[in-house]
Amino acid sequence: MKVEGIFDPEITKIETEIISYLLNSTIAAARGEITSKILFYFVTRKDLTQAELQRLTGYSVGKISQELNSFIDLGLIEIYKKTKPWIYSMDSIVTEMFSRAINLIKINLKWESQFLDIKKELEEDKNELQKFNGYDKINKSIEEYLARFAGFKVVLKLWEELKKKYERE
Amino acid sequence: MLKNQDFLESHKFEGRLKEFEQILIDFIMDSGRAKSVEPTLQKVLGYIAIHRKLTQKQLIDLTQLSSGTISKKLREILRLGIIKKEKIPKTNKSIYIIAPEAIGSAVDTAWEEFTEISIFLKSKQDELVKYKEKKGSKLLSGRITGLLKTFEAMENIWSDIKENFIHQQKK
Are B23 and A103 a contacting pair at CB < 8 A? Predict the structure, then answer.
């Protein structure tokens, strides 16, 4: 595995235009500029070292290191330590996207049992809890999330199958 | 048009309900981390989602964030199309409302944007053909193909989400 390094100027220009376009889209709006910019360089470059990321983005080593650790925790990228410097890699964009979507559903479903307990308490102690402000809003939120979790269970199986399909391609 | 009682309602939850509100916020933050959503944006969105409608002042009180941060985050969330802003009658204040229908339309808007991005990426891929001998051309072109394939897969994912959302609305 080796990092591609410096692109020819014509290619760098096209890459910069792509990154700027994506940064101005709503894809980047929720993540913030720093996280999005580093993520988009993985989309265009696949394999990167910290030094290469620093050269491309201009961000500090500390900031880049923090973002890389967060990407690793989220399973967005992998780290290869057999080489020096270490290489960070986002292999397949499509399977990465499915992994993220599946992971997100699993994280959501982790909360299901706690929400079921709250629902039970809201029902059993309704007369008492209704005296306080916020009963209807909390009850509605819990019901909506539990309904969403039920839907997630259906799509989870479907997405796991789709992920396997793209991995085979 | 909003009526006075729509915004005079207190935003302070009490007793055990305050604890449930915190659990919901913890869940929303956990979910946001998995999506790499910027934490302060997720926090603001979380409180609006639970309370359905809040003024900027109420948001400051609930989140303990500064008024400048709240203003910035509200602009960003409005841009995402998942909340709407309405004027409070006879005042110069606004209220921010989460609209269930906005989730469906936000998916549509996002999909329209993905279509535009795909067109842009294809044009860049065509441009790369002219420079196929240049360093980085082959890699970048391959990565664009991967990204386009991802958008195609996302279309499947989003139609599942939308179908599921419509199904829940009908219940």
Answer: no
